[in-house]
């Protein structure tokens, strides 16, 4: 240890410390303190008494006080002066620290405390107010925190941050959208009650976003209005439309598929065999791929089914659109719609004479450049057609593509899944954001009226699990009648569906892929048919497999049908036998038949120069 620092330590160790050192010796020690660097000063002061620490900092600052790096020493001096009750002296120390480092928030906070202690209340308020970031900056910080926490799956804290942002600036459509959907995911009902002054439930509902709207409204007109507003804010029109209005002259129809989900995504599992089975004497298949490289088997299969794989990850919307024009695509099928990652900006350039949206988003996509939404007679019946934009283009039979290949399913058992062997098992493996308070109340009544039954749900997130568990108990239902299923790989997920007895569909946003999987595994399903496409998906699937017994038209009818399946063994056995006898394989699972019907619909609208 250097000699001067050792002398300081010896002096501080005497009774009374530096306060009892003779003035001549104290002056020498002051020069020793001035010779320390900042870290040495702080280390020495940490082991000293408050009185000695105060002297050390005052000596050091007498020599170094104007240096920018001395702000920490001024701050520590202020802390020590406050401990001695010297509020005015502490205020001056904190002010000096702030002059040297204006963004030192801790000094601003402590300055306010010191000013308050000295009776300068208004000055204290000013100091604290100056420490706050401007409202616009706080708003941005809350939004950024909420965005990252949402991605992390920390739904509750994310919702708190977004609400804090809205309290600063209530009319932020994007923030309202994310907060409503977070509340849907957490089953925080009513989801549009944001508890933000100036934001009505009607405003929150209008700005809920395209995905959330499918689970909020059973009205295609309301869905379309909200989607049009979202598109107008997010995707401005392109400067020009690129494709020739009257089409091209090709021997084969060049069909292009645009997607950000050519990966381990439900859409790819549905569409893979369609891509493989396209009639190559009539169609040439292009895939415009903006999907993640996840290395999955399904991605490899999808890309292998394309005649032309065109990666567009690094291309701008204009460049991607011009690539499609260079390929002279006759019909472009958008597989995203208004889902996450959609490249709507490409569509705004009108890169093909005919453009349709399919499968990814089950609702209106009011983008002026789109010509069609692919559907069927059940999902968009003629009497509801006027509510949709773009124009419905119907596929004969069911609209939904499916992969008819037999999956390699692992062995499963009720015991391994924590299910009672002798119970009637109601299930729903859909995401919780599709669940509404009305449907949950129905499920509780259904289980209560079905002796020996349990409800088996996917464990979607901690917040919704806690909320639903509490509501279950409030409904007077025993805790062991609500069973949670963890998330598993696709093959095990399909296999374990067969362990249940009845799938309870959600409304107004039905199950789509999951409903098809349930029927394929011989699991009967009951759905409530509504007006919107999303509220009629399951009805289309049930119609295709010949199970009209599962289609209800009212909430009371839905409950009665579900209870009927649970309490009428003959009815349940008959429907199980029908599904177990190959109903799915003969209908939804006949990919070759679907491909022919799909191609017929596309051919009917292809333009030829």
Q: Main traits of this protein?
A:
10% strand, elongated, Rossmann fold, 609 residues, Serine Threonine Protein Phosphatase 5, Tetratricopeptide repeat, seven-stranded parallel beta sheet, six-stranded parallel beta sheet, 50% helix
Topology:
Layout: H1 3-13, H2 23-34, H3 38-46, H4 50-64, H5 71-83, H6 87-100, H7 105-117, H8 121-131, H9 135-152, H10 155-168, H11 173-185, H12 201-206, H13 210-216, H14 220-234, E1 253-259, H15 266-277, E2 283-289, H16 297-304, E3 308-311, H17 317-326, E4 331-334, H18 344-347, E5 354-357, E6 372-375, E7 391-394, H19 414-417, E8 424-428, H20 437-448, E9 453-458, H21 462-474, E10 482-485, H22 490-497, E11 502-504, H23 513-520, E12 525-528, H24 537-545, E13 551-552, H25 555-567, H26 569-586, H27 591-603
Parallel strand pairs: 1-2, 1-4, 2-3, 4-5, 5-6, 6-7, 8-9, 8-11, 9-10, 11-12, 12-13
Helix pairs in contact: 2-4, 3-4, 4-5, 5-6, 6-7, 7-8, 9-10, 10-11, 15-16, 20-25
Could you explain how this protein is built, in words?
The chain has helices at 3-13, 23-34, 38-46, 50-64, 71-83, 87-100, 105-117, 121-131, 135-152, 155-168, 173-185, 201-206, 210-216, 220-234, 266-277, 297-304, 317-326, 344-347, 414-417, 437-448, 462-474, 490-497, 513-520, 537-545, 555-567, 569-586, 591-603; strands at residues 253-259, 283-289, 308-311, 331-334, 354-357, 372-375, 391-394, 424-428, 453-458, 482-485, 502-504, 525-528, 551-552. Helices cover 50% and strands 10% of the residues. The strands form 2 sheets. Strands 3-2-1-4-5-6-7 form a 7-stranded parallel sheet, covered by helices on one side. The chain has 4 domains: 3-131, Tetratricopeptide repeat domain (Serine Threonine Protein Phosphatase 5, Tetratricopeptide repeat, Alpha Horseshoe); 137-208, Serine Threonine Protein Phosphatase 5, Tetratricopeptide repeat (Alpha Horseshoe); 253-394, Rossmann fold, CATH 3.40.50; 414-588, Rossmann fold. Helix 2 crosses helix 4, helix 7 (105-117) packs antiparallel against helix 8 and helix 15 (266-277) runs parallel beside helix 16 (297-304). The longest helix has 18 residues, at 135-152. Strand 12 (525-528), helix 24 (537-545) and strand 13 (551-552) form a beta-alpha-beta unit. By secondary structure, the protein is an alpha/beta fold.
């Amino acid at each position: 240890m250097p000699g001067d620092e050792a002398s300081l330590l010896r002096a501080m160790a005497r009774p009374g410390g530096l306060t009892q050192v003779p003035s001549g010796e104290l002056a020498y020690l002051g020069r020793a303190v001035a010779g320390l660097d900042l870290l040495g000063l702080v280390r020495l002061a940490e082991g000293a008494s408050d009185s000695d620490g105060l002297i050390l900092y005052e000596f050091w600052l007498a020599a170094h006080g104007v240096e920018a790096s001395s702000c920490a020493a001024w701050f520590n001096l202020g802390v020590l002066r406050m401990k001695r009750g010297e509020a005015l002296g502490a205020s001056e120390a904190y002010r000096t620290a702030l002059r040297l480092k204006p963004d030192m928030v801790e000094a601003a906070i402590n300055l306010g405390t010191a000013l308050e202690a000295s009776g300068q209340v208004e000055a204290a308020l000013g100091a604290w107010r100056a420490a706050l970031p401007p409202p616009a900056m706080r708003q941005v910080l809350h939004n950024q925190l909420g965005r990252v926490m949402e991605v992390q799956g920390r739904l509750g804290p994310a919702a708190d941050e977004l609400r804090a942002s809205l309290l600063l600036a209530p009319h932020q459509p994007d923030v309202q959208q994310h907060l409503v959907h977070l509340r849907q995911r957490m089953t925080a009902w009513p989801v549009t009650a944001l508890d933000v002054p100036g934001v009505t439930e009607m405003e929150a509902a209008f700005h809920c976003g395209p995905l959330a709207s499918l689970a909020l409204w059973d009205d295609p007109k309301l869905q379309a209005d909200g989607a049009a507003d979202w598109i107008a804010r997010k995707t401005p029109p392109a400067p020009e439309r690129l494709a020739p209005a009257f089409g091209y002259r090709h021997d084969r129809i060049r069909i292009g598929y645009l997607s950000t989900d050519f990966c381990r995504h439900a859409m790819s599992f549905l569409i893979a065999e369609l891509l493989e089975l396209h009639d190559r004497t009539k169609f040439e298949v292009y895939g415009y791929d903006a999907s993640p490289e996840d290395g999955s088997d399904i991605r490899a299969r999808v890309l292998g089914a394309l005649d032309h794989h065109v990666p567009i990850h690094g291309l701008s919307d204009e460049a991607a659109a011009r690539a499609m024009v260079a390929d002279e695509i006759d019909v472009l099928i958008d597989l995203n719609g208004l889902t996450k990652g959609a490249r709507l900006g490409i569509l705004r350039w009108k890169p093909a004479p005919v453009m349709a949206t399919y499968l990814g988003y089950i609702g209106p996509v009011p983008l002026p450049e789109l010509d069609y939404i692919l559907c069927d007679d059940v999902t968009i019946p003629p009497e509801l057609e006027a509510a949709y934009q773009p124009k419905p283009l119907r596929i004969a039979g069911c609209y939904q593509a499916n992969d008819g290949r037999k999956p390699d399913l692992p062995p499963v058992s009720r015991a391994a899944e924590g299910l009672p062997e002798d119970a009637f098992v109601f299930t729903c493996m859909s995401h919780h954001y599709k669940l509404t308070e009305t449907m949950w109340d129905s499920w509780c009544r259904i289980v209560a009226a079905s002796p020996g039954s349990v409800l088996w749900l996917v464990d979607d997130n901690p917040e919704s699990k806690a909320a639903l568990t509490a509501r279950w108990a409030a409904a007077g239902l025993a805790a062991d009648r609500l069973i949670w299923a963890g998330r598993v790989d696709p093959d095990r997920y399909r296999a374990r569906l067969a362990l249940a007895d009845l799938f309870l569909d959600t409304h107004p946003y039905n199950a789509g892929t999951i409903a098809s999987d349930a029927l394929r595994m011989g699991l009967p399903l009951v759905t409530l048919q509504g007006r919107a496409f999303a509220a009629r998906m399951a009805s289309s699937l049930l119609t295709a497999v010949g199970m009209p017994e599962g289609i209800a038209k009212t909430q009371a009818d839905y409950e009665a049908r579900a209870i009927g399946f649970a309490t009428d063994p003959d009815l349940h056995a008959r429907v199980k036998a029908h599904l177990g006898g190959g109903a799915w394989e003969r209908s939804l699972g006949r990919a070759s038949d679907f491909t022919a019907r799909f191609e017929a619909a596309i051919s009917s609208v292809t333009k030829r120069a």
